[in-house]
Amino acid sequence: MNFINENIVTIVTFLPLAGALLLLVFPRRARDLRYFALGISLVTLLASLHLPWHFQRGADGFQYEQNVSWITHPNIHYHVGVDGISLWLVVLTTFLMPLCVLVSWKSVNERVKEFFILMLVLETAMIGVFVALDLFLFYFFWEATLIPMALIIGMFGHGRRIYAAVKFFLYTMIASVFMLAAVLWLYAHVGSFDFLEIQRAIQQGAVPGFAGAAKWLFLGFFVAFAVKVPMFPLHTWLPDAHVEAPTAGSVLLAGVLLKMGTYGLLRFNVGLFPEQARANAGWIVALAIIGIIYGALVAMIQPNIKRLIAYTSVSHLGFVVLGIFSFTQIGMDGAVYQMLNHGVSTGALFMLLGMIYDRRHTYDIHEYGGLATPMPIYATFFTFIMLSSVGLPLLNGFVGEFMILSGAFLAKQIWGILAATGVIWSACYLLWMYQRVFQGPVTNPANASLRDLDAREQISLWPLAVAALVMGVAPMLWLHSISPSVTVALKQFEAATQASAPAMTHLSNAFMTVFGR
Amino acid sequence: MVVPLIILGTLSLIGGWIGVPKALGGADHFEHFLAPVFQAYAPAEAATHAATETAPTEDEDRGLELALMGTSVGVAVIGFGAAWYLYYKRKDLPAKMAASAGSVYRLVLDKYRIDELYGAVIIQPLIWISTNVFWRGIDVGLIDRGVDEAAAGALDVSDGVRQMQSGNIRSYAGWVTAGAAVVIAFMVWRGLR
């Protein structure tokens, strides 16, 4: 048992990579490749479930830690571990991966081997980002996600895929360079890449020249994460990348890659530079709220369904950033929870869009209409997932949005009021789109005899639908482990900024009572 | 539609009996249904405030409740009767009334055209602004154009600089000479200052 606990993070991280290496030597028989990729991703999912299963709830700090020297000079460690915040993001990644393999079953027919190898390499890189506790290792995994994702878009995408892939790559790459500069500055002044050591050094004021550099370090990290989130006005790579990406690429892009940005903001921007985070919260929240409203308005009028859903991510991730920078327990809990919710509901929406694309090869809303008649099962799944994205009570989106808005209200009422309009906008753009695509008579004869979802497609959707319901009804299953880690982060934050957060016990207690402990 | 209406009618008949008000001699099971949820968080001062306030006597309370009940039942009965008369007994009447009311009838039928007003004042402008200002203007026109221009600019600059690498030794010698001349000119200028 000890061996497993000490190595589980490494096992989960590198299982997909090992699978990818095995795939290299496989003969090019598409069927075998698919089953093998599915098997590997399922084994990874099972292994990752060890993490929440044996997680010590309420314990401070990181668990399943592993820290070995990797390169002695410069002093780089292979240091990994999870806390309540990263724990579920790892599970979200491993949970989405088998579903991505399933939705790619028939839609990827050429270069199947390359596709699944890239997917598995991407999985390792994504998990690595969430578990890395050494800034060099983090940066390594962070950049490592770019290559497979850009290749997936560029090789397996639609129409203007090369343009989208290059744009995605350069946008994120250029922004990441600022983070690299900040990381190197920290190394030069602390002598370590280790997240915990750097954090301790900063808290003790033992970093020479930190006072002057803190602002720039904060911005360096912030730019890299803001592009990834993406925050207005750095979001324009996202619609292009989504529209051209194959379905599985979109699912992982929206489901996991965007969370890397918000995770980074929470872990590094707030964790390492609390004073700067406090000082800059005003304009960051302003950008988040602009993102919520602007993203929703632009989503509303998109003629292309996939572009529409892409812009909704700008809006939804604005909520997450708002929750983080509300610096309240309930708001930050909600932000972490909303990251998971967005992964489930937007991931499912992109899967649904992929299924209709497989049949009609278009995302144009004008091409559709009355789809509920030929495809009732599809329409039912779509309704359910759409409502979870809108934030209907009893489904997951509601819990996250409610907590974030509560936190925003506590921090500053006007933030809560403005952001709450986002809830209305999300109902506007999704219901309007639903009306145009699914309701009324079938106007386009090409849609009249579309076949409904087959067993494989339904199997790939059920886990997400169930997750949306369970996460909406029993959020404490997740918040139990998220909340203590947020408390730790918030305590450190308050100690550094010498300011107590607005009273939040009343609301969060009420919340706990309603949803059970 | 008949079967669902029968089911709903039966259910409302049952539902009504769960909450027979005290005024009619029943026990209202719904009244305090959610009380435990709020008990723990009810602000203490509100509770004491409510206690000091003089509560209305039982009889006053009962009279008011009965009056309210009577009114609402009366309104329902009148509505029921009017509907029965107009749509069952004298089916010709509604059309005549509509004709005699003219434009007022149209206005009511169109729900005072509130939807049209809302569409013209709020929805259409919002869609126009979202499409032309936010999406085509800011998103595509400003931000994305800036990104694309930056990329194109990098290509153009490289394309210009590339011309220097012609492979022609004589032109390289020319560049070296020109560079040397610039350096010497700079040094002379520094020396003169």
Walk me through what this model shows.
The complex is a heterodimer of chains A (517) and B (193). With 517 residues, chain A is mostly helical. Chain A has 19 helices and two strands. Chain A has one domain. In chain A, strands 1-2 form a two-stranded antiparallel sheet. In chain A, helix 3 runs parallel beside helix 13 and helix 14 packs parallel to helix 17. The two termini of chain A are 29 Å apart. Among the domains of chain B are: 36 residues, no CATH class; 30 residues. Chain B contains eight helices and no strands. Chain B is elongated. The interface between A and B is medium-sized, with 17 and 16 residues.
How many strand elements of chain A? 2
The residue fraction in helices of chain B comes out at over 70%
Shape of chain A: globular
Helix content of chain A: over 70%
Structural class of chain B: mainly alpha
Strand content of chain A: under 5%
Query: What's the mean pLDDT score of chain A?
Result: 89
User: How many H/I helical runs of chain A?
Assistant: 19
Number of strands of chain B: 0
Tell me the domain tally of chain A.
Answer: 1
Largest sheet of chain A: 2 strands, antiparallel
Order of helices and strands of chain A: HHEEHHHHHHHHHHHHHHHHH
How is the biggest beta sheet of chain B arranged?
none
Computed Rg of chain A? 22 Å
Oligomerization state of this entry?
Answer: heterodimer
Following the backbone from N to C, one meets helices and strands of chain B in this order, namely HHHHHHHH
